[in-house]
């Protein structure tokens, strides 16, 4: 499937200062084959950025799809996570959630857009995340629909707070999501206990659809692991870059 061309990539490492978070946040940025600063590109912002590159193989998979399937080349921004604070920043009930949202909207976006030729339309920004990364991506779109309308959520951790938030919404017709969850995710051990991700995703997909969101939803054999999510990335990329 893959040959040597698919593994060649341009990766840029950046650090962005954040007053909201009180520290710098590292970024890993993928530039597509044939990158030209005079052009403009759709952009994918990945939570757990290093994991998307190292375990999701998003750069290799995107190279392949650009070269072999003629999908539109994107710039991919992997936002590295402070693992010790991940739940506090990604969970909408976390103590640092608002700070992370402020960082993402008011510091990350302007920083990336001043440095790289990414498109600035909400339809050309894609948010991607696994588990709680999918949760924070969805909440960013709910909180800032003028900025974000497309979300990739791989086994999103759609706990009670997220489902309550969705119940409060009346019109989510602006939103488009790719959602995938594994059939073996009915008893996943996470920091808050054992959780049924399969049912939570079913509930979230139903609530989103009832409120007008366009949802591409998949249930497949799989566990709450990158081995499952890596295989779902191509379908998500085709949906939004097709």
UniProtKB/TrEMBL annotation:
Residue intervals passing through the bilayer: none
Record-linked InterPro entries: AB_hydrolase_fold, Esterase-like, Mycobacterial_A85_antigen
Superkingdom in the source lineage: Bacteria
SUPFAM superfamilies named in the record: alpha/beta-Hydrolases
Classification via PANTHER family: ENTEROCHELIN ESTERASE-RELATED, IRON(III) ENTEROBACTIN ESTERASE
Name of the molecule in the record: Esterase family protein
Native species: Paenibacillus contaminans
């Amino acid at each position: 499937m893959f040959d040597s061309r698919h593994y060649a990539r341009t990766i840029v490492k950046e650090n962005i200062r954040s007053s909201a978070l009180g520290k710098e946040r590292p970024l890993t940025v993928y530039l597509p084959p044939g990158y030209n600063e005079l052009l403009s590109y759709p952009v994918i912002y990945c939570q757990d950025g290093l994991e998307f590159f190292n375990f999701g193989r998003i750069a290799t998979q995107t190279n392949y799809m650009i070269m072999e399937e003629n999908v539109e080349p994107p710039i991919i921004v992997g936002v590295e996570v402070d693992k010790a604070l991940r739940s506090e920043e990604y969970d909408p009930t976390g103590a640092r959630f608002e700070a992370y949202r402020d960082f993402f909207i008011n510091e990350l976006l302007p920083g990336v857009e001043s440095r790289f030729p990414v498109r600035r339309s909400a339809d050309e920004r894609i948010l991607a995340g696994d588990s709680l990364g999918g949760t924070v991506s969805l909440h960013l779109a709910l909180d800032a629909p003028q900025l974000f309308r497309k979300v990739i959520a791989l086994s999103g951790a759609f706990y009670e707070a997220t489902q309550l938030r969705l119940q409060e919404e009346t019109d989510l017709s602006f939103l488009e999501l790719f959602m995938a969850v594994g059939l073996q995710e009915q008893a996943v051990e996470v920091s808050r206990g054992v959780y049924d991700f399969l049912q939570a995703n079913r509930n979230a997909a139903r609530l989103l659809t009832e409120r007008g969101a366009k949802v591409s939803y998949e249930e497949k054999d799989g566990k709450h692991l990158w081995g499952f999510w890596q295989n779902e990335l191509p379908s998500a990329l085709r949906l939004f870059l097709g």
